[in-house]
Amino acid sequence: MDIEMPKLQGFRRKVADGLALQTDATQMPVASGCADSVVCMAVAHHLTDAMLTDVLRESVRVLKPGGRMFFLDPVFAQDRMVGRMIWRLDRGSYPRTAEA
């Protein structure tokens, strides 16, 4: 699931028979309680706080009881040169610190 078609096309090249949905994760078009797992990778820094809350709410909604969510996103580290360089190149508008 992604909102950008080029990312979905890349996924389909790797997993030809995989299900690829172009949609907004704040309103997932899937049934409640249907997913064993939800993976949210390198997305949160593209979302406002309200949108992130919606994505997390939707993730809980679609998970089966006992399902797992895996959440991975870069952390903005102003004190590290590599961190500052990465954030200059990244398109994410909402970097969050470790404290956030």
Strand content: 15-25%
Strand order of the largest sheet: 1-2
Which consecutive residue ranges, at least 5 long each, have pLDDT under 50?
Answer: none
Number of strands: 2
Compose a concise summary of this entry.
With 100 residues, this protein is α+β, with helices and mostly antiparallel strands.
Characterization of the model:
By secondary structure, the protein is an alpha+beta fold. Helices cover 33% and strands 17% of the residues. The protein has helices at 5-14, 49-62, 81-89, and strands at 35-41, 63-72. The chain has a two-stranded parallel sheet with strand order 1-2. Strand 1, helix 2 and strand 2 form a beta-alpha-beta unit. The longest helix is centred in the middle third of the chain and has 14 residues, at 49-62. The model has no long low-confidence stretch (mean pLDDT 90).
Walk me through the topology:
Blueprint: H1 5-14, E1 35-41, H2 49-62, E2 63-72, H3 81-89
Parallel strand pairs: 1-2
